Structure formats: C-alpha cells, structure tokens
Amino acid sequence: MVKYIIGIAGGSGVGKSTLLKILDDKYANNIAKITLDNYYLPIEDQQKDENGKINFDLPTALNIAAIKADIAELLSDKVVHRKKYNFNNADEAVISILIEPKPILIIEGLFVFHFDFINSILDLKVFITVDEKLQLQRRLERDFRERKITEEDALYQWHNHVLPSNKAYIEPYKDAADIVLVNNEKFDENILILEQKIEAVISAQ
Predict the structure, then answer these.
(1) Which residues contact 86 (CB under 8 A, 6 or more apart)?
(2) Distance CA 198, CA 96 (A)
C-alpha cells in the first residue's frame, strides 16, 4: 500500500531519470515509479506549432486520463501495466512496464507540479535544476542517442518548444518545492536530504 508520494520535476535534460535510477538502485523494494514520459498521446494526436512541427513540450501532449487512472490503481493497491512510449525510434522494441504498488510512489516528469491532480497528493516535492548550457548539451545527446533526432531538429525544439515550456509550466513551481537539487557535475548535497526522507518512511513501516 502506498504511504508516501514524491514528485520529481524539472526541465528537459536536468537529470530526472538519473535521479530516479539512483533512488531505484538504493530503495527498489520500497519504491513504485510512474514516469510521465510513458503517457504521451499518439503522434497523430499531438499538437503542431505554426511551422507544422510536433510540440511534445506541452501539458496537452500527455494522456491525462491514463495518468489519473494508473495513479488511482496504485493507490488502490493494484498492479499497473504500461508500455514504454516510443517517440521517433521505429526500430525500438515495445517494452512492457509492470508497476507494483509499494510504500513509496515516485511520480517523475516535466509537468508533475503543473498538474493539480498530481501536485495536490504529493507529500514531498523535488525540483531539479541545472546550468542551461549543460542542460542543452544533455538534451542534444539524449535526442540523438535515444530518439534519433537530428541536431537541427533538436535545436529547433529547444528554442521553440523547450524554453517556452520551461518558462510557462515548469520554472514557476520551483519556489514551492520542498527540495531543490542542483545537478551540474553531479547532484548536490541536497540529495542526502531526499534520501533521509525516504529512509525515514521506510523505517516507519
């Protein structure tokens, strides 16, 4: 049964997935994970900008109903089955994800704090930030490696989609976070506060 819910948010390329892996490696038996990247609507249902380019960096790009349903299932102590979202890589095999309810539920994604139905149930809010140049570098590397996006297209998305989204839907929630992690070379010492919170929940079971 879920007893504690943590939200992890921040812009693209700040290290949300990296943090999730670090926590999963340490506390796997006690953590269930929902990653909003797996809830994007199909390509044909995505909104396009004025130049006809799909904009994934909008809250409306996500399947809200599916996110709500899966959270509700976990909070009802039920197992969730989800498929890993395939952005542009047609050669990528379909990966099925099994999410079992655990004492701690972590919800990670760009708009975790923007969606009130998530924000309102969080016991702990973690916001990750990084130097903007480093953030862009990480985004370019990820887009090429994982999503087969050219540098030209990635830079277009960065300037026309990512930065406006950061300003409108992500950065405004930074000041309301319980923990702000800086992730330039590595996560700063505030990660220890996060780990202590998790260990306290585990110890209290």
Answers:
(1) 92, 94
(2) 27
CATH superfamily for 4-195 is: P-loop containing nucleotide triphosphate hydrolases (3.40.50.300)
Share of the chain above pLDDT 70, in %: 97
User: Each residue of 6-54: pLDDT tens digit?
Assistant: 999 999 999 999 999 999 999 999 999 999 999 999 989 999 999 999 9
pTM value surpassing 0.90: yes
The answer to whether residues 2 and 32 touch, using CB atoms and an 8 Å cutoff, is yes
Domain residue ranges in the chain: 4-195
For 3, the token pair is 């007893």
What backbone phi and psi angles, to 5 degrees, belong to 86?
Answer: -105, 110
CA atoms of 173 and 163, how far apart (whole Å): 15
**CB-hemisphere CA count at 13 Å for 181?**
27
How many Cβ atoms from other residues are within 10 Å of residue 135's Cβ?
23
Query: For 46-85, what is each residue's pLDDT tens digit?
Result: 999 999 999 999 999 999 999 999 999 999 999 999 998 8
Residues 89 and 86: their CA atoms lie apart, in Å, by 6
- H or E segment at 153? helix 151-157
